[in-house]
Amino acid sequence: MSKPVVFSVIEAPTHPKLSDLYNELGYNELQFSSVRKAISALKKQKPDIITAEFFYAFSTNYSSNYISNLDSLLITLQKYPDYQPKIIVFVSKQEQEYVSKLAIRYLPDHVLILPVTAEQVRPLLVS
Hints:
This protein is α/β, with parallel strands linked by helices. The protein has a single domain (5-126), classed as Response regulator (Rossmann fold), CATH 3.40.50. 31% of the residues lie in helices and 20% in strands.
């Protein structure tokens, strides 16, 4: 039987370092430095869990239809209706209020306020 897979989208140094936890629980972690690279990997492999940090679209870096850096990933996941990975989102205290805007369109399974520890994430991985 193959190991369950975690996609870690690590776009900032504030993303929690959870590789040891994933390994301990028997997950195969694939790390991506951008949402775009994670989306590309979805064509080849479907993860059981996706972890990523939420960044609100304050500026014009994103299209006006986009709320955050995660929108394109979550939209891509909607193309696979029979496939539902667990989505764990990390967010700073300053941007916490904006996650609710994301949840209106795409509901993450869990939202954790940074800084996040492995012990906070552990029960989310074993449930």
